[in-house]
Amino acid sequence: MPAANDVRKGQVIKFNGEPHLVMETQHRTPGNLRAFVQIKMRNLRYGKTLEQRFNSPDPVEVLPTDRRTLEFSYADRDTYTFMDPESFESFELSAAMIGESKYYLVANGKAEVLFINEVPVTIDIPSSVTLKITESSEGIKGDTASNVQKPATCETGLVVQVPLFIKAGELIKVSTADGSYLGRA
Predict the structure, then answer these.
(1) Other C-beta atoms within 10 Å of 152: how many?
(2) What are phi and psi of 96, to 5 degrees?
(3) Residue 139 has pLDDT above 80, yes or no
């Protein structure tokens, strides 16, 4: 097993019997005390973030991981199906694992999935996606004060505030961080 000071950002470690994704590490040597490693990590099962101190030589169990870029195929109730474009293997992810990312998944859209022991654990989506507007009210002529916006519903059910000139059927870019309008696609 590697020592705590060998742990790096992006690795998955086993802590208290649960898999945790390492988000940040800091090696510290305060004055006349022993060196330690401060690790900020996120529990992959519950999503909670915590910080933990480890003595530098303490052994830490690093879990073998695999990141794959998968394509979203379809959603069926509480199951989301993804396909590996290289091996054509299908993976089903639960709605709980997908969370709010469901509003940014479109057919053939790419997502990066983290696997531990061939079991999918987390999903990362791109920073922006292109979505089609399905419903949008008409802008009122003359209502052109600075940056007036209206709500528009996208194909995934996401409601985005867009400028008045955007109409139903148009493609727009949306930020996946906060669901904001970035521009036309």
Answers:
(1) 23
(2) -65, -40
(3) no
Q: Which CATH number fits domain 4-63: 1.20.950.20, 3.40.630.30, 2.30.30.30, 2.30.110.10?
A: 2.30.30.30
| Type of residue at 6 | D
| Alpha carbon distance 171, 134 (integer Å) | 10
CATH superfamily of 65-124: Nucleic acid-binding proteins (2.40.50.140)
Across the chain, what does the average pLDDT equal? 88
Q: What is the pLDDT of residues 23-81, one digit of tens each?
A: 999 998 888 888 899 999 999 888 889 999 999 888 999 999 888 999 999 988 889 99
Distance CA 39, CA 5 (A): 10
Q: If you count them, how many residues does the chain have? A: 185
